[in-house]
Write a structure and sequence with these properties.
mainly alpha, 241 residues, 3% strand
C-alpha cells in the first residue's frame, strides 16, 4: 500500500453541488439561505393568520397555535423548571418550529422542481452548516442562562460533585453541540437520500410509506433537539446543593 500524501485538501471535500454567493472573501451556501427564508416566511405567515382575529373560542389556525403554545410551555417547564422557563419559551419554541417546518418542508415540498444555476434546494436542516449553527446557538444560550442567573457561581457546575469532574465537564461542553448538530443533520439527510433512491428504483409504491415514516422521524428530531436544548438550559440554571 502506497503512502498517503502529507497534505490532503479535506476542507475542499463536499457532498453534492451548491449554489454559492460570494460576499467579499466569504462563500455562502445560497440554497440554504433561500430555503431558510422560505421556512421563516411560512412560520411568520402562520402566526399572522392565527393571531389576526383572536377569539375566545379558538378554531382553525388559532387553535393550532394555542396547542403549540401549550405544548412548548409544558416542554420548557418540565426541562427548565418553574422559576426560569418563561424567559426561555420563545427561544425553545422558535427552535422547535424552525426545525419542524424545515424537516417537513424537506419531505413534502418538491424542491427539485425549482432549478438553480447550480446545486438544488432542500431542507435547511439537511445541511451541516445549519445544524452546527443551531447547536452552537444552543451552547451559547445555556452558558448565558447559567452566567446571567448565577454569575461566577455558574462555574461551580464544573467541580460538582467533585473537582475530578472538571476535564469531563469540559469535554461534555464540546460534545453537546457535536451531538446536537450531527444527530439532526444525519437523520434528515439520510431520510432525503433514502426517499430519493427509492423514487429512482421503485417510483410508484414503495416511497410513499417511507415518506410517511420520514415525516414521523422529522417530527421526532425536532422534538429531541428542542427538548435537549431546554434540558441543557435547565441544567445551567439549576441550583446545586
Amino acid at each position: 500500500m502506497g503512502s498517503l500524501p502529507i497534505a490532503l485538501p479535506f476542507a475542499e471535500l463536499e457532498v453534492g453541488q451548491h449554489l454559492y454567493w460570494q460576499i467579499g472573501n466569504l462563500q455562502l451556501h445560497g440554497q440554504v439561505f433561500l430555503t431558510s427564508w422560505i421556512v421563516i416566511g411560512a412560520i411568520l405567515a402562520l402566526v399572522v393568520v392565527g393571531t389576526r382575529k383572536m377569539e375566545r373560542d379558538p378554531h382553525g389556525v388559532q387553535n393550532l397555535l394555542e396547542f403549540l403554545w401549550d405544548y412548548i410551555r409544558d416542554l420548557a417547564r418540565t426541562q427548565i423548571g418553574e422559576k426560569a422557563y418563561r424567559d426561555w419559551m420563545p427561544f425553545i419554541g422558535t427552535l422547535f418550529l424552525f426545525i419542524f417546518v424545515s424537516n417537513w418542508g424537506g419531505s413534502l415540498v418538491p424542491w427539485k422542481l425549482i432549478h438553480l444555476p447550480s446545486g438544488e434546494l432542500g431542507a435547511p436542516t439537511a445541511d451541516i452548516n445549519t445544524t452546527v449553527a443551531l447547536a452552537l446557538l444552543v451552547s451559547l444560550s445555556y452558558f448565558y442562562a447559567g452566567l446571567s442567573r448565577k454569575g461566577l457561581r455558574y462555574f461551580e457546575y464544573y467541580v460538582h460533585p467533585t473537582p475530578i469532574m472538571i476535564p469531563f465537564k469540559i469535554v461534555e461542553d464540546f460534545t453537546k453541540p457535536l451531538s446536537l448538530s450531527f444527530r439532526l443533520f444525519g437523520n434528515i439527510l439520510a431520510d432525503e437520500l433514502v426517499v430519493a433512491v427509492l423514487v429512482f428504483l421503485v417510483p410508484l409504491f414503495l416511497p410513499v410509506p417511507v415518506m410517511f415514516l420520514g415525516l414521523f422521524t422529522s417530527a421526532i428530531q425536532a422534538l429531541i433537539f428542542a427538548t435537549l436544548a431546554a434540558y441543557y438550559i435547565g441544567e445551567a440554571v439549576e441550583e446545586h446543593h
